[in-house]
């Protein structure tokens, strides 16, 4: 009797649940789904990502503006954010105006620079050989500088539309900032979940805010130093070149190379191998290397704690997904990805591999004071 009931119990027992996949497999599957989504949805994600970074930068500037006292009274929070938003978007509007205003002058100077380039190739023929010089000259004859400059102006309407979209994104983010914090516990249905998500969001905000704040200052310093060097040597188009250096300084490694090579090429075309070229190349290049390799690490410290290989891989990955915009956003986006991965056991492996020394940044590792 006992044996029959035992057999019936075994027959009625539910089948064993299949083994769950390992965490690393879940992480890879998540990334495999996410990457195509980011690539094909770039028209939506790129403006949104730019808006989030500008929002973080504006909040950082606004917090520092609130510390300013006028007649013994501090600036209200809303006024500080309005001032910081006006300053940030005013700077970008001014930069676009300067660059587009110089395009006409650059187009007019294009034939002169083409003639100078031919002369420089003649000077190099002894070093590289006449055949190589002739091939280089033949290739450059098919390059239309004016058409290239016109192609830069052609997408101006799309850039303006994107800039307007980013502006409204940032505007509504600032307006919804406090309301979102109140809605979060209701949406998640738990104060504990809301607190956990809020802490992770604060960690992301503080680390990216620190990155944006430090890189904005060092990029401005690099642009100001280059402008002084170009004006001292008399190189043409000092203002648009300096602005381009400011923006490309946010791109790891590539920005440094461009910041040294581009001014030197303009100086070479204008003056040949005279002293202005060597001054721009040696002095300007040395100052840029000091800014990127001494001043910036001294200010940044362990703000991101990402390995150098991870930075280069991030540059290649985000550049492949989103083009030039991805190159600009590669470091902060990867930092966000690393912090998010650190919050989930299935993805913690990727956070560990991306970090510089294996010490994963957790949501409690960063304080508000460190953002300063």
From TrEMBL:
Protein name stated in the entry: AI-2E family transporter
Topology of the protein relative to the lipid bilayer: Multi-pass membrane protein
Similarity comment text for this entry: Belongs to the autoinducer-2 exporter (AI-2E) (TC 2.A.86) family.
Entry keywords, A to Z: Membrane, Transmembrane, Transmembrane helix
Subcellular location: Membrane
Residues that span the membrane, as ranges: 44-62, 74-96, 152-175, 211-230, 242-266, 273-291, 311-340
GO cellular-component term (any): membrane
One GO process term, biological-process aspect: transmembrane transport
One Pfam assignment: AI-2E_transport
Keyword Cytoplasm: no
């Amino acid at each position: 009797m006992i044996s029959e009931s035992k057999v019936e119990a075994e027959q009625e027992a539910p089948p064993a649940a299949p083994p769950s996949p390992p965490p690393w497999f879940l992480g890879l599957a998540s990334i495999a789904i996410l990457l195509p989504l980011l690539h094909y949805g770039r028209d939506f994600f790129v403006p949104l990502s730019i808006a989030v970074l500008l929002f973080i930068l504006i909040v950082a500037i606004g917090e520092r503006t609130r510390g300013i006292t006028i007649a013994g009274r501090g600036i209200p929070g809303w006024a500080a954010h309005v001032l910081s938003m006006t300053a940030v978007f005013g700077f970008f509007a001014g930069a676009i105006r300067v660059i587009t205003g110089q395009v006409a002058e650059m187009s007019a100077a294009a034939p002169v620079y083409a003639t100078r380039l031919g002369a420089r190739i003649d000077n190099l023929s002894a070093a590289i050989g006449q055949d190589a010089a002739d091939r280089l000259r033949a290739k450059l004859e098919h390059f239309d500088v004016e058409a290239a400059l016109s192609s830069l102006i052609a997408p101006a309407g799309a850039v303006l539309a994107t800039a307007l979209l980013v502006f409204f994104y940032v505007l509504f983010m600032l307006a919804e900032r406090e309301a979102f914090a109140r809605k979060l516990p209701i949406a998640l249905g738990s104060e504990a979940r809301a607190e956990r998500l809020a802490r992770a969001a604060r960690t992301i905000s503080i680390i990216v805010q620190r990155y944006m704040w430090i890189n904005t200052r060092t990029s401005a310093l690099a642009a100001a130093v280059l402008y002084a060097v170009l004006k001292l040597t008399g190189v043409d188009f000092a203002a648009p070149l300096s602005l381009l250096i400011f923006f490309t300084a946010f791109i790891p490694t590539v920005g440094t190379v461009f910041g040294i090579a581009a001014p030197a090429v303009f100086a070479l075309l204008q003056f040949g191998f005279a002293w202005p070229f060597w001054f721009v190349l040696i002095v300007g290049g040395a100052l840029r290397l000091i800014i990127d390799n001494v001043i910036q690490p001294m200010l940044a410290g362990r703000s991101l704690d990402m390995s150098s290989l991870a930075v280069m891989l991030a540059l290649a990955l985000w550049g492949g997904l989103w083009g030039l915009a991805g190159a600009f956003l590669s470091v902060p986006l990867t930092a966000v990805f690393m912090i998010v991965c650190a919050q989930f056991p299935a993805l913690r492996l990727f956070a560990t591999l991306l970090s510089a020394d294996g010490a994963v940044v957790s949501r409690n590792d960063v304080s508000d004071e460190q953002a300063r």
